[in-house]
Amino acid sequence: MNIASIIRLCRPTQWVKNLFVMLPLFFSGNIFDLQLVGCALVAFAAFCMASSAIYCLNDYMDADADRQHPEKCHRPVASGEVGKATCIFLMSALSVAALALPWLLSSPASLYSTCVVGTYLVMNYAYCLKLKRIALIDVVIISIGFVLRVAIGGTSTGIFISHWIIIMTFLLALFLSLSKRRDDILLYNRTGKKMRHNIDSYNLDFMSQATTLVATVMLVSYIMYTVSPEVVARFSSNLVYITSLFVLIGLLRYIQLAVVFTSSGSPTRILIHDRFVQASLLGWVVTFALIIYF
How far apart are CA 54 and CA 156, in angstroms? Predict the structure, then answer.
């Protein structure tokens, strides 16, 4: 065991998902308020600790199954680089740190934010121990986890969270989770190895219809959001609908990666390496920034 193995166990590359914490701050127009940025960064750090704690528990529980996976077999616990006792100790330490960090915020933000982190931890403990074996419940829990990231972004800064951002976050996370399950099914069809306990409850036809349904609902909901009177009034602009273009092409690219290139197994890896997805996201962020801040 070495420090590099411990770091890999914590999966810092997955912390990019915790940038959802910053969404309320960005959309509120306060991204340059250093005090609020500091509060959001504390919340971001808390969720980084919490998510790493869950990854430790997940790797502990799935060590045997991971050894059968062509990529997951290299994970620290599955490969034997990190012992199970060390894994549990690290999980406990990270969980305590995640619950303690929000107390750096001013009250009552600290209490509310700690409750959000605690909810995330308990929900995902249950996910790792049992609920991930139940089809559909598994992807819903993952999606709620992203909503909780947005929630702590609001509680830590005192920024009101619109129902629109909750809906969009949930639908996007659900779409990505279903796409990831589709990749597991393709692997099962190729190798005959069940990488998930609930794989028999999914198949390619269902996943294709489910991802199409969620993507459609998400796109329609997003367009409704961009043209809603309250959004136009909040941003003092009727040009928000332009951002729909980047959402559409981003979705199409992700579907292309999933269906044509069968490479939707890791949304984080796609975000880090796929230039098309990066360009779509950058275009969306820049366009929104121009509308909100200029």
Answer: 22
Alpha helical stretches, state H, 82-136: 84-100, 109-129
Give the pair of three-digit tokens for residue 197. 């306990």
Q: Residue holding tokens 């209490």? A: 111
Kindly indicate the confidence band of residue 197, based on its pLDDT and cuts at 50, 70 and 90.
confident
Q: Give this prediction's pTM.
A: 0.93
Distance, CA of 135 to CA of 266 (rounded, Å): 19
The Cα 240–Cα 230 span in angstroms is 12
| Contacts (Cβ under 8 Å, ≥6 apart) of 2 | 81
Q: According to the model, what pLDDT value does residue 188 have?
A: 79
CA distance 293 to 210: 37
Provide the sign of the torsion angle of the four alpha carbons 230, 234, 235, 236, taken in this order. Answer: positive
Tokens encoding 166: 């909750």
Q: Which residues of 143-168 are buried (b: 16+ CB within 10 A; e: fewer)?
A: bbbbbbbbbbbbbbbebebbebbebb
CA distance 179 to 228: 29
Q: Is the peptide bond before 229 cis (omega within 30 degrees of 0)?
A: no
